Each structure stands twice: as C-alpha cells, then as structure tokens.
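haha ok so turns out i had the wrong file open the whole time. this is the CORRECT one, sorry everyone. sequence first:
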Amino acid sequence: MSEDRPLTILCVSSYEKGQEFIRTAKAMGCRVLLLTVEKLRHADWPKECIDEVFTMPEELPLQNLIYAVSYAARSQTIDRIVALDEFDMENVSALREHLRIPGLGLTAVRYFRDKLAMRARAREEGILVPEFVHVLNYDKLREFMFRVPGPWLLKPRSQASGIGMKKIHSQEELWPWLNQLGDQQSFYLLEQFVPGAVYHVDSVVSEHRTAFAEAHAYGTPPLDTSHHGGVFTTRTLPREA
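then structure:
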C-alpha cells in the first residue's frame, strides 16, 4: 500500500462467499471492488466494506471477462485480484497474467485445480498417488487398464469433490463414456480406484512456507455422497494427533 493511495483489491466470486475476506481487506485500509454474477448483486455482501460492485453474466467466456475487467481498469488502478471461490481461480489467474498483476498465474494455479497436473507433480516429488493416465492416447489407455486392476475412476480434471466422476469397471464400459465426451475427452483422466477413508487438509501457504494447516476427515467419501445421496459431512481431526 503506497502513501498516496490505498491498495485496490478486485474480489471475484461466482458464489456467495468470502465476506470475511472482504471485511478484513477493508479493515486493513484497502479499497475493495467486487465482481460477481448478476443474480448475486443483492446477496448478503458486506456492502459497507465494498467500494464498488460489478456484475457479469453466469458462464461468461474468459475472453469476455478479460474485456470487462480491462474496461474497468481504464478508470482505476487494480493492484491485486483475488478469487473468493475455487471455481474462479483459473479465470482470476488468467486475468492476473493478462493485466500483469502479481499473484499465481495459470501454470501455477493448475497444480491446485487440474487433477492431472497435481498428480504428475506429486509423483515427481515422491508423493504417493494412485495410478493414473491422461485420457488422450487410446493405446496408453488400453495399456493402463491391462496393467492396473479395475475399477477405475473417470475424472474431470478441473471439477471439485466427486462432481462429474464415473466409476468404470471394465474396458468395455469406458469406450461408450468417451464417445459421449467427444472433444472433451482430453479434459479427463482415468485413475485407479482406491477404497477407504478420505481426508483433506486446508492450509494457508505464504512465501513458500505453511503458515496454517488443519486436517479433516469426510464422514462419507465425496464420491459416494455425490452419486448415491446422503448428507455431506466432514470433521476436524484432533489437533494433537
């Protein structure tokens, strides 16, 4: 934050969340702008902490989003862009790269949003991951299914939780699904299904160091909840464990 003007933060969210971040940024003396979808213009935002609200249509193409934010930047300086929801991270990283604003760019964000990129990087670093293959080359897919016992999971690379996943039990079952996907096939991976409890760790990393981390366990694996119904639950694990 310079002496002559406050830091301006553009918050981007397609969902109603991030209110506490907005309040904290304002309390720190920042100028806060909010870009959200039109239907959330009058949602429960902390309006006293927001200097200006911009809206966009749902499913706005990235190129149009870049046009819109670039137009807003003609009349005001934007110092930082923050995604308030994980589904906005990729668009925000593209905005940062286009406007040359500090923060994670597209390549770095892929390690947090692209299941193929994160698994490949984890394996490079010696972290155990299930066997997987990119849904791209059919010979490699056949070799994978011959080598790795089923069932397998057909996963979209950029969704969250169990959204869009299909459990595949045989090679014959896979090909009709790929025919349905058509040109979208390369946006998927095929992964060994490993049954058992599912855990997640939420953390804050600053300057390459973990500033905060909290471990949790799902009551039921997200894949089961999204496909078979039930109540989605998660619990914080004992901090001394």
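The mean pLDDT is 92.
again sry for the mixup
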